[in-house]
Amino acid sequence: MKITGIVSKFSITKSSIILLLVLAATLPVFAGNGFPPNLGNGRPGLCMIYNSTNEYVVFIDDAIEKNWKPGDDWSVDYRFGPIKILAESNFGPEKLDPNNIDLYNTEDLFPFDEQTVFTSDGFFGTDWFPRKTLVFSTHSDGVPMSSDVYALARARYGLTTNQWFLGEIGTNIFYWKTGNLGRVYLRSTGNEQAIYYFDLPRAVDEIYGVKKAVSFNKEFGFCVLRKLGWFEVLENCGTAQAQPTFLEYSSKDAKRLKSAR
């Protein structure tokens, strides 16, 4: 089963105009180093350390992309490298020294479209969302274009106020829906009706976004927080109750909705 969609030239132009209008009304744009044109391609190791409009670095964690296995912790640890820097401003190699930078300041980047990415951070409310987000684009000269990816997703992809954007892979967008914590929906960018969904494991406690899969027989993966089992808690001496986990899927794993939305 191949889950794709065809978007007309008119719909692309119209949605792009709406997106640009929304972006223009958000945070101001300052001069800075530009990002690569394929910033939003969904690479699993794409990360960012953002301190200010004049101090940031975007990089690929090659260790994650080469060594990840299904179920592994998706948290980035640049200390184990190697890393590939894609863009930076006032962020030389000395600032990536583990003794000079806080690991928890590193953010994963999730794809909004081919040129745009967003962060997904924090624990807000009992329903997971909305999260604290920042949106970066090749058009923004290295600074946030918005602090609300959900508003942009509603303008660009026609999501409703109870649908929380998780990212775009290829021609498919993924989102979570208020009231059903364990289910992720996907549809093509040209279809406002949700057609397919994935039921996540019961142990999933939080979900942050979607990226491309690492395994050759999978297509995408969800970055989630998974509650540890009793034995796992014992192995951690009770110091950890949950662990970031990368759950990989293919389109063949998707279930078809009996009715849209």
Describe the protein's architecture and organization:
With 261 residues, the protein is an alpha+beta fold. It contains four helices and 15 strands. The strands form four sheets. It has a five-stranded antiparallel sheet with strand order 8-9-10-11-15. The protein has a four-stranded antiparallel sheet with strand order 3-2-1-4. Strands 5-6-7 form a three-stranded antiparallel sheet, with no helix packed on it. Residues 1-32 have low confidence and may be disordered.
List keywords for this structure.
4-stranded antiparallel sheet; 4 helices; 261 residues; 5-stranded antiparallel sheet; disordered N terminus
Give a concise summary.
The protein is α+β, with helices and mostly antiparallel strands. Helix 1 runs antiparallel to helix 3.
Beta content comes to: 25-35%
Query: Element order, helices and strands?
Result: HEEHEEEEEHEEEEEEHEE
Shape: globular
Q: What's the number of helices?
A: 4
Rg:
18 Å
Structural class: alpha+beta
Mean pLDDT: 75
- Note the gap between the termini: 20 Å
What is the assembly state of the chains in this entry? single chain
Q: What is the percent of helical residues?
A: 10-25%
Count of β-strands: 15
Instruction: Give the low-pLDDT segments.
Output: 1-32
Largest beta-sheet characterization = 5 strands, antiparallel
Cross-sheet strand order for the largest sheet = 8-9-10-11-15
